[in-house]
Design a protein that fits this description.
The protein is about 45% helix and about 5% strand. It is mostly helical.
Amino acid sequence: MLEPFKIKRFFTDDWGAYERHIDADKHEIGKSNTQKIERKNLTLRTWIKRLTRKTICFSKSKKMHDIVIGLLINKVEFGVDIHA
C-alpha cells in the first residue's frame, strides 16, 4: 500500500514483525526520527480538525474525510494544490 509514496526508509520500534517484513537495508530501529514524524502527524491532525473533534467543519461522511485527507497529503507531500 505504501509503494506509491516511494518511501525509502522505515523507522520503527523493536517489534519482531517489522524485521520479518521490512528489508534490513530499509529498516532502522530507534527513536532518532520519531520527533519529526510525530510533529508532522500533529500538524496534519491540527489542519484536519474534522478528524479530532466535532466542530462546525465535522462531516460524518467517510467519503468527505477521504477526499480532504487526500487533498492535504497531495499539498503537503507533493506540493500539488487543487483549485476549483
